[in-house]
Design the sequence.
């Protein structure tokens, strides 16, 4: 389980190492989702094909598509409150 921190405002530069392991809420046509910056490589991904539980637990496992990145874990979005 990897805990992902809520990304502070303003967004800042996504390539900044400090942005790794953070999430930000995103409204989609199917409801609230989130973008996640991979804790391993910094690639930005959208969790629109995942379920985000009320406590922020994301299912299924998040697997980073980044080349050479091995991040593959259950993640929990700290501070998630979208309902
Ligand atoms: Zn990655």
Sequence:
């Amino acid at each position: 389980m990897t805990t992902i921190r809520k990304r502070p405002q303003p967004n800042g530069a996504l390539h900044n190492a400090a942005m790794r392991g953070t999430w930000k809420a995103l409204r989609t046509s199917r409801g609230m989702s989130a973008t996640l910056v991979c804790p391993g490589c910094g690639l930005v991904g959208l969790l629109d094909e995942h379920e985000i539980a009320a406590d922020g637990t994301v299912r299924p496992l998040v697997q980073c598509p980044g080349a050479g990145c091995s991040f593959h874990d259950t993640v929990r979005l700290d501070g998630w409150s979208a309902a």
